[in-house]
Input
Amino acid sequence: MGQWQTLDHTADLALRVWGADLEDLFITAAQGLMSLITDPTRLRAEQTRTLELTAPDVETLLVDWLNELLYLSECHHFGFAGATFHTLNETTLQAKVQGGPWPGYTSYVKAATFHNLAIHRTTSGYETELVFDT
Output
């Protein structure tokens, strides 16, 4: 299972995220995002949503994924609790997202950004740093 760490950032919120593979990186990034904006212990996998995304590269796909999860929480009061990927490669994502009623914000994130975003392959998997506009 992946890990995340919050990073100091002058104006916004930031995370460093590690995952054994792309699926682990994407799920861990989503869990890290949820930990920034709500109490993740209150998120329940009671409902399922289907997400299908395409992008020109893996960094854009990750930003789109996180921003779609923000949209679901903001507009549909659906908090991310997990996901099962049917397809995940560098340009395509098809997933069943588990979640449930939004427990409310502890802090607010407007969007995942492209600021210094690069996904690196390492000997133990993948790693990236994410900056969120607040």
User: Anything to note?
Assistant: The mean pLDDT is 94.
